[in-house]
Amino acid sequence: MSVKETGPGKPIRVALLGCGTVGTEVVRLLTDQAEDLTQRIGAPVELAGIAVRRPNKHREVPEHLLTTDASALVKSDDVDVVVEVIGGIDPTRGLLLEALRNGKSVVTANKALLAEHGSDLFEAADASGADLYFEAAVAGAIPLLRPLRESLAGDRITRVMGIVNGTTNFVLSAMDATGAGYAETLEEASRLGYAEADPTADVDGFDAASKAAILASLAFHTRVTASDVHREGIRAVSAADVAAAKGLGRTVKLLAICERVTSPSGQESVAVRVHPAMIPRTHPLASVNGAFNAVFVEADAAGEMMFYGQGAGGAPTASAVLGDLVAVARNKVASGRGPRESAYAALPVQPMGNTPTRYHISLDVADKAGVLSQVAAVFAEHDVSIAAVRQEGRTEDASLVIVTHAATDAALRSTVDKIGGLPVVREVVSVMRVEGEE
Ligand SMILES: NC(=O)c1ccc[n+]([C@@H]2O[C@H](COP(=O)([O-])OP(=O)(O)OC[C@H]3O[C@@H](n4cnc5c(N)ncnc54)[C@H](O)[C@@H]3O)[C@@H](O)[C@H]2O)c1
Ligand SMILES: N[C@@H](CCO)C(=O)O
Ligand code: NA
Question: What residues bind NADPH, as annotated (predicted)?
Fold first, then answer.
């Protein structure tokens, strides 16, 4: 029996919103790989239009496709899929809701929008049966959201911990390598083009907090928004912190940590936080340097996994966008749908104060008898157990380094506040959480 050859199906028509760093690379990949994409999808993918702000700036893309009217492009009957790489909340939120309500599948790289309004977008997608894919929004090119949404959907994830911001990782890696301070290292990163002109979203942890919210939502089947995430950036990380970490075989990283926490009574909740932390130099995340990202996932059956690669940049991010575009196009060809929002577990989000953490505290103290016992008494008073102490005497004062066992973050903060007020403590040199070790 001979099988009749079928040609490619009806073209999938794509509206591209935004043509900056990522958008330009999306157009390039779509053009360069048109034939392969047709084979992989079973239908050609064609650009129906590209919405931009300033058309005369875009000499690298076909002029006849450019429009400044994103709203009209999204509404056009000629469009099946909307790819959004503008960024920000407005006007993208309205544009993507309009697209989804009209049954057009959406591919977006916009973590800020998803972390704030993800559930509205999912509801609109469900109402019309459209797809919503966003692999590029977290850790750029690294396949991470698809593994969480699909490959690990049969497992129980307990922890997701990673380096999800390239700019801050570049700065912290450089501080570790040179011993220089935060401000001068950030200046150098800007000069080399690794930090944006306005690095606030990166250095104050907003970018990582949006990504943490998305990761926690997917890992724990719970709606987590950016405002649920405890956030501390890297502005306060000093050369002394980095030196203190090095002295104990650790390094400082800005971590996004999403954990499933079970109380003694068996009540489950999630804790989601972004802050600098010391990790052992032997931990797999310690060797992630420069602008690279890496995310460590722990699941009951699968065990430990690490995802590593380029978390930013035009081409790497466009790779993730194209992967999503192929997925939604295949779904259209097969009249199927990708995964919907999965928020059925609806676990409560635990406040940071109740979250168990460990601290590294470095003090300058008077070098006289009884100091250690005074400091130790404050820990005991707050029910914080000490894991290790190192004291080095000098002429008039001494350096005292204390690493705690896990205690609630609130108890650890109160302990540090009280110790800072002891007359025998000359200076609290460095306080930082410790992660990645038992
Ligand atoms: N650059 C990266 O490395 C990277 C990595 C991961 C995710 N992302 C995300 O991808 C998205 C795009 O990032 P980018 O780096 O390409 O930004 P970009 O600033 O280079 O590009 C955005 C483009 O959108 C245009 N634009 C703004 N408002 C518009 C409107 N109303 N209509 C049409 N065009 C409009 C701008 O003129 C600009 O050209 C953001 O959501 C960002 O968070 C970027
Ligand atoms: N500003 C982000 C870009 C990728 O989301 C970073 O530095 O990682
Ligand atoms: Na990704």
Answer: 111
